[in-house]
Structure prediction request, 206 residues.
Amino acid sequence: MITLYASTSNPGKLRDFAAATAEERDVSILPLPGLEGIAAPPEDEPTFEGNAREKAVYYSRFLPGAIVLADDSGLEVDALNGEPGVRSARYAADNAFVTEPGTNTDHRNNLYLLKRLENVPAGQRSGRYRCVLAAARNRECLFTADGAVEGQILDSPRGDGGFGYDPLFHLPELGRTMAEIDLATKHRVSHRGRALRALLLAMRPH
Prediction:
């Protein structure tokens, strides 16, 4: 049995992990105990892998002997030279983008992305979701794995599922956005699902 402790309080990521392991009989992903009382690391690495490694190693010190899972993920838009990239969760805040009071972070980021792309035609709005997962134990990174999924950025949101940029991220092969698909399908096609499958493959005995 492989038990991983996820170092995230993001409910969307926890839902994705739960869906990803629903059919994995030998894998359990649990929230890291006491995470709410642990100060977050800076996440100041320039790459997804660097941040994932940093977080996994950092959080592993709080649960000795256990394998701690961390991810860093985000959206890369070709027309914006890879933005928002590793700053995906802080995109609007980094750029002091002002919205109506009470606007949540995901919606604010989506509004800022749409503003940045307002003069970019539909045929030039390609991008991808990327995810790197890292597993660490006792302050040592044991494994990393990455996954990506290609798509197009719409000019208005569709769907009320998912989180982050999901309502704007259109999957051409499905004809739907990431916010319009069920969790099982999302695990099959998403960057996080692909990264998790690759990580578990690396962790299992060959």
